[in-house]
Write a structure and sequence with these properties.
The complex is a heterodimer. Chain A is an alpha/beta fold. Chain A is built from 6 helices and 7 strands. Chain A has a single domain, classed as Rossmann fold. Chain A is globular. Helix content of chain B is about 40%, strand content about 10%. The relative contact order of chain B is 0.13. Classes of the chains: A alpha/beta, B alpha+beta. At the A-B interface, helix 3, helix 5, strand 7 and helix 6 of A face helix 1, helix 9 and helix 13 of B.
Chain lengths: ~180, ~300
């Protein structure tokens, strides 16, 4: 059976693990470790290899949900994880000092994969920090020459994550029907 | 200093604190955006995090609640329809246009423009519920629930009630407003649903139905009322401009779903229309059917079934 997968990426603390948990049919498999570096200032543990969840489709098909580790020293895994992926979900934390820099970094890092598939961007923590606005993100993206979906997302809310993934899939093919 | 100005002053100070923090961080040594140098800083002093978060913002629950996704079955009950008009009949398309200026929507849009231009908190008095506009935070305060707003949205503002509308600077913010944070709405989300309820499946008369329209960028769907097929329409328009009937035809959906989406997106300034002849002769690209269409469709079905 084919190995279909959707990739979730973004900086440490952006909500990748939580987002996968929101739509996975299994308790996500996490490869957390006690944070020993800068990450520990944000949370006690962090993803060091990857997160993994599954969506079970009618007919027995499975969609594998992979979350990349947020730290760049694990970037050697990113190429491996994206191979054969359907598309990319990029989550950005709006309380970080420069989320635009984060956005550019990840869009650059996954440029090849995005060119072959597509990307949808979720901005988390907007209830804690309402600036920059979603329109500010669109302005930045316009300057980069791309126009992906950008939504406010609470990674704990299934509906938010669901809409973000749906926008990714419709971007790939607006003709698809549920 | 007036109370209103004092409030704005406080809010601006809060924003400045965030900006100042951002600038301070930016002025440090260039850092990798992902991996930061090891540090023993406490979270409060974490340089990659903004130092200030807005606790009031979390209490504005209407602003941050997740989207309502409407399916076709709920459309007429939630959005409504115009008696005696079948907007899905191509012969009746010329009659399926509406002018937002004839409704509360038009007055709200004008008021938003004035408040934004003056950078002044403004109150729109309509003889109904007062509506207060906070342009600095892109917010609207209204003491009415969706059911009440939906009913008022559909009422035509005739020549008698229209002139009764007034827009006045709000010099002092009442305690009842400051204490009712849940009645603050994001300006775009408010205008989006107001336009949908005003439209009732019609399209804005300012648009030429036979000229292609384009979408400037994706709407922030997680905080809007998601009308049937709105995501598909967005994806299609992001790929290339199309006329309204063409969108319905390509996606094999009823025109009312296109019209209501276009009405809301147009109210937010997200819709543009080809003005020059050269723009019109650009043929829209054919929608490419992906090899994985069946699979993608099953994933969408799964996601929508689990949307609770």
């Amino acid at each position: 059976m084919s190995h279909y997968k959707i990739i979730f990426t973004g900086p440490v603390g952006a909500g990748k693990t939580t987002a996968i948990e929101s739509i996975s049919d299994i308790a996500p498999i996490k490869t957390d470790a006690s944070a020993s570096d800068m990450t520990k200032t944000k949370k006690s543990s962090t993803t060091v290899a990857m997160d993994y969840g599954i969506m079970n489709l009618a007919g027995g098909e499975k969609i594998h949900l992979y979350g990349t580790p947020g730290q760049e020293r694990f970037d050697f895994m990113w190429d491996i994880l994206t191979t054969g992926g359907i598309g990319l979900i990029l989550l950005l934390d709006n309380t970080r000092a420069d989320p635009f820099q984060d956005m550019k970094f990840f869009l650059d890092s996954f440029q090849k994969f995005i060119a072959e598939t597509n990307v949808a961007i979720g901005v988390t923590q907007m209830d804690l920090s309402n600036k920059p606005t979603i329109n500010d993100y669109h302005s930045q993206l316009r300057a980069m020459g791309i126009k992906p979906p950008v939504f406010s997302v609470d990674a704990r809310v299934k509906n938010d994550v669901s809409l973000l993934v749906q926008s990714l899939l419709y971007s790939l093919d607006p003709g698809i029907e549920a | 200093m007036s109370e209103a100005r004092a409030i704005l002053s406080v809010k601006k100070k809060s924003d400045n604190q965030v900006n100042a923090c951002t600038q301070n961080t930016a002025s440090r040594q260039p850092q990798n955006p992902v991996t930061k140098p090891e540090s023993s800083l406490s979270p409060e002093k974490d340089p990659v995090k903004k130092q200030a978060t807005n606790t009031d913002e979390q209490k504005k629950t209407s602003k941050h609640q997740t989207a309502m996704q409407l399916d076709e079955g709920k459309f007429n009950a939630f959005i409504g329809s115009v008696p005696g008009l079948d907007v899905n009949d191509p012969k009746q398309f010329p009659d399926a246009a509406y002018n937002p200026k004839d409704y509360f929507q038009g007055y709200v849009q004008s008021a938003l423009m004035v408040a934004e231009a003056k950078k002044q908190v403004m109150r729109l008095n309509s003889g109904w519920k007062p509506l207060i506009i906070f342009p600095h935070n892109h917010e609207i305060w209204l003491d009415a629930d969706d059911k009440q707003l939906r009913a008022f949205a559909g009422v035509g503002m005739n020549k008698i009630s229209g002139p009764g509308m007034t827009l006045t600077p709000e010099e002092s913010i009442a305690a009842s407003v400051q204490e009712s944070l849940e009645k603050f709405h994001d300006q775009d989300a408010f205008l989006w649903k107001l336009a949908a309820w005003t439209s009732k499946g019609r399209y804005p008369g300012a648009l030429d139905i036979n000229r292609p329209v384009f979408l400037k960028h994706w709407p922030n769907f997680t905080r809007l009322v998601v009308t049937p097929h709105a995501l598909r329409i967005s994806a299609l328009l992001m790929a290339s401009p199309r006329t309204l009937p063409e969108i319905a035809e390509v996606l094999k959906i009823k025109p009312q779903y296109v019209f209501v989406f276009i009405s809301s997106a147009y109210a937010l300034g997200l819709i543009g229309q080809a003005k020059r002849e050269a723009d019109e002769i650009v043929q829209p690209s054919v929608v490419k059917k992906t090899e994985q269409q069946g699979l993608l469709s099953r994933i969408i079905g799964k996601l929508r079934a689990n949307k609770s």
